[in-house]
Amino acid sequence: MSRTSPTNHPTSNELHEFLSGRLPSRRAEELETHINFCPPCSNSLEKHSELHEGESLLDWDDKAQFRTDSFVDHQNVLDDELGSIPISCDSPQIGTGMEFNGYCLNSLIGEGGNGIVYRATQRQPVRRTVAIKFAKPSATGFSCPHRFLLERQMLAGLKHPSIPHVYDAGLTENGLAYFVMEYIEGQQLTEVLRGHQLPLSDCFELMKLLCDVVQYAHRNGVIHRDLKPSNILIERDHETGEIDIRRPWVIDFGIAKNLDRDAPTMTGANEMLGTLEYMSPEQLGVKPRCDTRSDVYALGLIFYELLAFRLPFSRILRFPTPSGPSQSMKY
What we know:
Elements lengths: L11 H9 L4 H13 L1 H13 L5 H9 L3 H14 L16 E2 L2 E9 L3 E8 L5 E8 L7 H15 L8 E6 L5 E6 L3 E3 H7 L4 H20 L2 E2 L8 E5 L6 E8 L6 E2 L33 H17 L16 H4 L3
Antiparallel strand pairs: 1-2, 2-3, 3-4, 4-6, 5-6, 7-9, 8-11, 9-10
Helix pairs in contact: 1-3, 2-3, 5-6, 8-9
């Protein structure tokens, strides 16, 4: 059977699922190969993309195609768990030296919109260094606790060597939700770029690895929505202590979109999520929208920054058209 056999032509629904990252990986690979050798299907994909430009491909999934009983069951579980998470400003205080459930907090790693991350020591049943993320209480509603639970669930379901593994999860004695992750001894890509310029070959190698990670997440129904250099860690070589460009990690899935489990009310109608400099035009609109292409857009900005040592735009001012990376490269 030839690659352009009519029996292999994708349906309209398949094109939609392909664009939204929902198509099963095997069929997605077949379709990708087929489109490369079939001009009519390539044109159909382009027209389908243009037809839905400016609207959310995810809304279509949420409203009709994937609202199954499993979604409802999962949402009920989240609602039950949510009752255990404090959402007022009077939540229990956490800090260095705090001990609970066999863990001891060593130092603060970082703080985001829906969580606080600490470097910690696990003392039992094994002794090792871990990262622990605590739910950050929200004084404005249930979105942040829900996002925390969804992040924990999504990370637990992603098994990729460049995404931190989840070891454990639970509640402190004071009822504060947390989950325990693999601790990465590395450096943010932001700091790497400040320290020195990467060789051109390393830039290409790094982007290939990052694209593989993001593609894996998309094919497993997860859109990151906040890809940027500070959410990419470059691991250090255990022997030399030097950063190893072949060991990137994608972190902070705190505002990620889960195509299977994300509740329709998780993101407000006009809620803008992400980091302005790395957000796609659709995310910056009056009615922000996001699908897998937003992650691809952010990857393109990161690649540009690796090559040119700057972003193509000045913050969110996106006109006139920026110069190509080859005109801005520092090599």
